[in-house]
Every structure is written in structure tokens, then in C-alpha cells.
Amino acid sequence: WSLPNAERYALQYVDGRQTYITDSPPPLSLQNRREIKNGSILRLTTSPDQEAERLYNGIQSNNSDVKTDSLKKLASLSQDITFAQEFINRNGLKQIFHIVEEGSATGEMLAHTLKAFMELMEHDFVSWETLSAAFIKKIVSYVNMNAVDASVQQLSLSILENMVPTSRLLFELVKKEVTLDRLLTHLQVTNAQLQLKATALLIALLLAATDAERRDMMDYLRENNIRQFIHKNIIHSSEPLGDEMAHYLYVLQSVSLNLCERRMRTSMDPYSQEQRELLQSLRQTAFESESEVSAGNFSTERRRSLCAKEFRKLGFTNNSNPAEDLRRAPPGLLALDSMVYFSRHAPSAYSRFVLENSSREDKHECPFARSSIQLTLILCEILHVGEPCSETAQAFYPMFFGQDHFFEELFCICIQLVNKTWKEMRATQEDFDKVLQVVREQITRTLSLKPTSLELFKTRVNALNYSEILKLRQTERLHQEETLAVPVLELRERLKPKLLELIRQQRLLHLCEGTLFRKISSRRRQDKLWYCRLSPNHKVLHYGDVEEGVHSPPIETLPEKIPVADMKMLLVGKECPHTKEKSSGKQNKDVLELAFSLVYDVEEYCLNFIAPTRYEFCLWTDGLNVLLGKEMTSERTQTDLDVLLSMELKLCLLDLENISIPDTPPPVPKPPSNLNFCYDFSHAEQ
């Protein structure tokens, strides 16, 4: 357009994040001119360097209104990487540090300052380790003071949460300055966002701590009733629980349960006096009166023989040296701890279990120790003890936060369930593995119902007895197993194409409804969300950034577009560019399982996704494969096809119920000797 001083102007997107259009100079990562799509609305505005210069001067103004407006605009524009680089190059961060450190800014002005700082640091141009002690102290003071605006406290907590994982020095500084008591105070407020940011900082501190520090922190939190705070103020608050908070509660649960890992991976040491005493306490609690009488009357040899007999009654395989049973790790010493906890906290139930089984016939007795060791292992597997935290999971158990000593209390309920199921199955020693398999199923099925308390879990798991499990298995088997007669198999094949088309339509409909995706970086779990959906005519994929709380934005509000005709291919898992970056070594397995990328355009750009759940991953990869004209390959397709086929077959075969279908069709009878029985319609017409 031959504008004078052209370098002072730039083009900027009108919609969405209002990013600047850049072409040169390098780095290439900042060039986005080629990404402009047909139909994008742009506006002519001042160039990023001019705007950076103007705002740099504006935030130094003595006029508070000009200063506040400049900081507000700075907080908005700092999301753009080109502008951020220009502002940082002018030493703009130094000015932001100055505004915070002098302490004159309050309320709205301070909130805009901290928001701008957060956005500028998000681009990773500057290391968090360069922050001055005075700046950090000021941020800490906003968290520790009561009379501070809630938005300032939220931003301050977010800044500290970002600092913690970057270096050991910053972790120690934040841990020292922001006490756990202060974070617990923030958990008790009614402001959900403040609760969320306080929980995020707490989780960041726990994940950055060493094992010993983490154990001390968790002990302190337990003593100060963190679970009660969470149970009352977060899980049972009037506001629904967001995805972010659900993730943090999952991490807190995972970190707590992983405190059992050290005992779980430690074998019993037969020479440890403490461990031997724990083992002996099991025997003494169960057979106390007998032991006391016999102790004075018998020789050492006889006493040893009596102890071996009692350990056999307790259900140890190696009754002369029961420590051998606990050498296997996992479950290691955790099994011993659980048995001792049960004997001390439910002594009557413990004695009843042992004595009831020691008086049964040998073949039908349920071995307490052997069952306990195997049950501990099953609980560790179900609760993922010793496994690293997932970056995306949100599956926490509400009852976990309503109970101290959760693992041990759950063990107490489940070991009594073992005895109950053993009796229901009329099991013998040969059925041991079968009984424990049923118990595992009872526990997992009950946990999937998300009971809110251990009492409710106990009621439900006991109601799910062996006969109920058999009914459920039979129902599932009937759903899964269709008759394998050849005609039925042929009918299945004939029905398949129609049902696959139905699944394709469902996948495309899901893409038209759209999904909320979360941006995850290598450094931290981010708050940023974006939405993607397919146009109703299946011609264009629309996407763009959205704010927290927006669940189904209209298609017009999503500025970015990819024509389906430009889509080239779909990449999943390790093939995706965003899983191959330098952080890939730390990438969790679950992120790899949820990652997929859409390659589009002649330049082969990539739109990178991390699905919120495996279900969404299956539906989106299937839908995109349909748009690309390829086969649907997810495991969900096979599951859906099996369910639909099962239903269709049942409907088709409804009239043939209880009639056996032969493998081969019956033989065609010979033609009759004459056809006189056939009615001649021609005579009737005449």
C-alpha cells in the first residue's frame, strides 16, 4: 500500500488472541504469515516494536490512569510472542520488577502488572532463576497477607507455582516463605479460583520435593486435617468440581498413596528385632490366652513347635519361619503393616477370622496371612501405588479424603470380604487364586461406582456377593458371546457395513459438537484451553483459544480454520511432533496415549492435540480418519461395532429363540412327482 514509514505498521488478527502477522526477520518460529487462512479478518495497527515502545513509556507514567491502561494493554498483548520479544528486548521486565518492588501499585494496577509478568514469562525468553530476591519477597507477601485483593493473590500463587519446578533454590525459597499453614488457610476460603491456585502451588511443592521432604510435608498436612478441609470445602462445596481441581486432587491422592511404596518394596528382614516383634504380635493377639498358659509349662522345643502350629493356623505357608512368606516384594512389609493394623484396630474381627478358620476342616480353611499378602498386592495394583502421577488423569476417590489411614482401613474391609467370599464359594486351598480373582472384581466394580465414604464402600462391596458376580459375568458373557453358527456369522458380515456407516456418522456428529482441549507444556500443567469442532457441512475444521468455563463456544467465535480438503494425514502417539520435542524423555506414558496430530496444507503444518480422555482420543482419531477417507482404527470402533452387532443380531434372531440353528442348511427336498396341487390362476382370470 506504499505507506510512509511502513515499518511502523503491522497486521493483526481481529478475532481470537489478536496475534500479530510476522514474516521476517528470523527466528522462523515467529513467522506466521503463511498460516493466514482465507476468510481471516485482519486490521492495520501499529507494529509490535512501536507498541512495545509506547507501552514501555506508558507504564513509567506518573499519571495513574495512563499507567493502569498501559499495564492492562500490556497484559493483553503479552500473549503474542512477537510483541513479548520486543518488550523484553527493551528491558521491559525490569520496569515490571520495579513497579512490584516499590510496592505503590495496588488493586487493579497490581493485578494487570502480575498478569503481564505471567504472560511474558510464559514464552520462556527469560529464566525464572533471574528473578530478584526483592521481587520474590513481594510476591510471597501478597500470598501471606490477608488484606489483599483476591485476583492479586491468585496471580501471586500462580507465579510461585511456576517458579517451584524450575530450580531447587527457588523451591527451597518458596517452601520456606509460604508455609503449609498459609496454603491450608487458602483452601478454606469460599473463592473457588483461590482454592484452585493454592492447591496448584501445594501440588507443585510436593512434586518438586525429595522423598524425605514429601513424607514430612504429608505428615504435617495429615496432622493439620488437610483431608477434612478438602472433603468439606472442595469436594462437598456448592460449586461443581472443575477438571483442573479434579486433577490436583488425583495427584494429592497419588502422592499420599505412594508414601506406602517404600514399605511395599522392602522385603522382611528376619534379623530385624522390630519386624520380628510385629510378626509375633499377630500370633499373640490371635492366641493370647493359649500362649500365656503354655509359656510356663513347656520346654523351649515344645514352645517352638506350638508357635509353628499357631503360625500355621494364622495361614502362613512357611510356619517354622513365617518371615519367608514376607520376603516377596511387592507387597513386602506393607502386607505385615496391614495385618498388624487390622489386628490392633479391629481385634474382635481379627480374632474371629483366625479362630473361625483354624477350627474348620483343613481343606476349607481360609489362610489369613496368605490372603492378606495377596490382597495387599491387589490393592497396590488397583490404587497404582508406586506408579508415577499422570499429567492428565482426574480419577480420584472422594472417600480417600474422608478417611485417615485410607489404605489400611480399606484393607480391613477387604480382608473380611475375602473371608466372606471364601465361605460363599465353599472354597478349598486349591481355589485360592479363584477366590482372590473374585475379590479383585468385587473391589474394582465397587470402586468404579465412586462411593463417597468407606462405610458406603463397605455396604456396596458386601452386597456384591459371589452369586451377584456370577450373574454379572453371565450377563456380560451373553452380551459378548453370540452363537457361532455359520448362518449367524454370515448375517453378522451382512450387517457390518450398515453399522460401520452408523458409527462413522456418530463420529462426525461428535466432531461437529466439538471438544475442549488443554494445552500441556513440558514445564507445567497449563490453564490454557482451546476448542475444536467440525462445521455442520463437514467441509471445515474450526478451532481457537477459549476461556475457562466456556463449554461449547459458537462456531463463529473460533477464528482458526482448516479446510478438510487440505488435510493430509493423521499422526498418533510417538509420531506426533509435540511428543518428539526435547521434553519427550519426561513425557508420561498417558500423554503419549492421548496425543495425535493433524497434518494439513502443502507446507505440511501440524495441528497438535492432547485428548482429555482415551474416549475422546478414539472418537477424534476415528472422525479425522473418516474425513481423510481411511478406516477407523481405534479400539472404541471395535467395541461399538460389537455392541451394535450384538443388538442387531438379537433383534434379527428374536423369533428363533430356543431353536438350535444348524451349521449347514437343511437339504432341499426332491421335486414332487406331479404339480397338480398347484392352483392355475389363468382359469380364474378367464
CATH superfamily of the largest domain: Leucine-rich Repeat Variant
Q: Based on the structure given, which CATH architecture of the largest domain is correct?
A: Alpha Horseshoe
* Percent strand: 5-15%
Give the fraction of residues assigned to helices. Answer: 40-55%
Number of strands: 9
CATH class of the largest domain: Mainly Alpha
Main sheet, how many strands, which sense, barrel? 4 strands, antiparallel
Shape: flat
- Total tally of structural domains: 3
Rg of Cα set: 34 Å
Low-confidence stretches are: 582-587
GO molecular function: SH3 domain binding
GO biological process, one term: actin filament organization
Protein name: ELMO3 protein
Pfam family, one: ELMO_ARM
Report on this structure.
There is one protein chain. A hairpin with a 5-residue loop joins β4 and β5 (540-546). α18 packs across α20 and α20 (368-382) packs across α21 (406-424). The longest helix has 28 residues, at 486-513. The chain is of the alpha+beta class. The protein has helices spanning 48-58, 64-77, 81-89, 92-102, 107-121, 133-144, 150-163, 168-177, 180-187, 192-208, 211-223, 226-235, 243-257, 261-264, 273-286, 288-297, 300-314, 332-345, 347-358, 368-382, 406-424, 432-447, 454-463, 466-480, 486-513, 589-594, 614-627, 635-652, 681-685; strands spanning 9-13, 42-46, 515-520, 525-534, 540-546, 560-563, 567-572, 595-600, 605-610. It has three domains: 6-240, Alpha Horseshoe (Leucine-rich Repeat Variant); 265-292 and 300-478, no CATH class; 495-640, PH-domain like (Roll). It has a four-stranded antiparallel sheet. It has a three-stranded antiparallel sheet with strand order 7-8-9. One of its GO terms (molecular function) is SH3 domain binding.
